Amino acid sequence: MALVVQKYGGTSVGDPDRIRNVAKRVIATHDAGNQVVVCVSAMSGETNQLVDLAEQLGGERPDPREYDVLVSTGEQKTIALLSMAIHQLGRDAKSFTGSQMGMQTDSDHSKARIVDIDCSRLRKVLDEGAIAVIAGFQGVDPEGNITTLGRGGSDTSAVAVACALEADVCEIYTDVDGVYTADPRVVSGAKKLGSVSFDEMLEMASLGAKVLQIRSVKFAKRYGLPIHVRSSFKSDEGTWVTREEDVMERLVVSGVTHNLNEAKIRVKGVEDHPGIASKLFKPLSDAGIQIDMIVQNLSSEGTTDMTFTVPRAEYKKAVEIANAAAGEMGASEVEGDDAIAKISIVGLGMQDHAGVATRMFTTLANESINIQLISTSEIKISVVIEEKYAELALRALHAEFVEDGAAEPSPE
Ligand code: ADP
Ligand code: ASP
Ligand code: MG
């Protein structure tokens, strides 16, 4: 008997018919002799509506504790509805909120981290032969407060539970039939990958491919648990996210991603001496703002410019903090731009091929797209460009690196 964890995203449970369809799939897996834990998201659009409601109240940011009480309600609806649908088909199922299923987190509301999972209640239900239906995205902190794990967090709930239960597989059912070489809704020629390594998927998720929340991939990698991303509307094999040695293809570029959620800040005319970076970045990190790319220009006449990117949602706050720090450092000016896009190419095969960066830059130059910032790691290259060129850049890079006959670099 295998233990299977299945996660169904918002579109997959978007209306009663779809919930019934999910119930049938879950039952088929259960009746094939497996123990099944099903993790569900809120119905599509529901979490956004809840966030909107809070915004309609106006005023300052909502209280973080109450925000989590509000946005976690979407998942509570779907666990009840799915359990009812399973009952109607004659099988036993029990629903669990995050707190009831032992999903213990820290108290960092709206981006809480999982600390531990007490699986005893889930095990009991499974041992009794029932299907456990759990709410994704939510947990409980040590004081008993409801917490949530960040947008897209049901993926992480499902994978973390699968790791804690030592499940055989975690299946992520979504509205596409696997992980593609680019977002298939933006790049029509995107190709489905048969398998992709944890490290490539980590990069793709952190660089904008929202098909899996990044933390879910971190859990899977740490525990060596394969994730199978597949469609809830078809029965075809999807994409296996797995260990590098189990990946069949070794593409130069397995994914081209875009991220429109960042903004750029430049502090000009900073005196170039030891300690300036910490003077600027410490107040930003103290305010909980995560910095992504950082570029420091070569100094000229003793001063330099520092440019960095921050999450777009924190742009205004970051500009205020940078202005204050700039004042203290005697910098001449702070400039900001939130109409940027980060475009990245990711692939294990990049390590073995020289000239990938040059090909990337040439492709963008051929489209007259100016590169503002660059950052690289062993298996990825990212560039920041003007937001309005994001789709053009994505398509051009996908054509260059992924589409027909583009797997190998052209001879120099
Ligand atoms: P769910 O509600 O099931 O969690 P999401 O909307 O969070 O689904 O994630 C699925 C979406 O991710 C797809 O509809 C697709 O537009 C997007 N996506 C972005 N990049 C990729 C990619 N490389 N491969 C597949 N889907 C991607
Ligand atoms: N419902 C939550 C969201 O929309 C969590 C999830 O769907 O994974 O972000
Ligand atoms: Mg999602």
Topology:
Layout: E1 3-8, H1 16-31, E2 35-40, H2 46-56, H3 64-71, H4 73-88, E3 93-96, E4 103-105, E5 114-117, H5 120-127, E6 131-135, E7 138-140, E8 146-148, H6 154-164, E9 169-174, E10 195-197, H7 198-206, H8 214-223, E11 227-231, E12 239-242, E13 255-259, E14 262-271, H9 276-286, E15 294-296, E16 303-311, H10 315-329, E17 333-337, E18 340-346, H11 356-366, E19 373-377, E20 380-386, H12 390-401
The structure holds adenosine-5'-diphosphate, aspartic acid (ASP) and magnesium ion.
Concise overview:
Helices cover 33% and strands 25% of the residues. The strands form five sheets. The chain has an eight-stranded mixed β-sheet, with helices on both faces. It has twelve helices and 20 strands.
Give a structural overview.
This protein is of the alpha/beta class. The chain folds into two domains: 3-175, Acetylglutamate kinase-like (Carbamate kinase); 246-412, 2-Layer Sandwich (VC0802-like), CATH 3.30.2130. The chain is 33% helix and 25% strand. An eight-stranded mixed β-sheet has the order 3-6-2-1-9-11-12-10, with helices on both faces. Strand 19 (373-377) and strand 20 (380-386) form a beta hairpin. Helix 6 (154-164) packs parallel to helix 8 (214-223) and helix 11 crosses helix 12. The longest helix has 16 residues, at 16-31. The radius of gyration is 23 Å and the shape is globular. Mean pLDDT is 94; it is low at 407-412. Aspartic acid (ASP) binds at residues 9-10, 41-42, 47, 74, 136-137, 151-155.
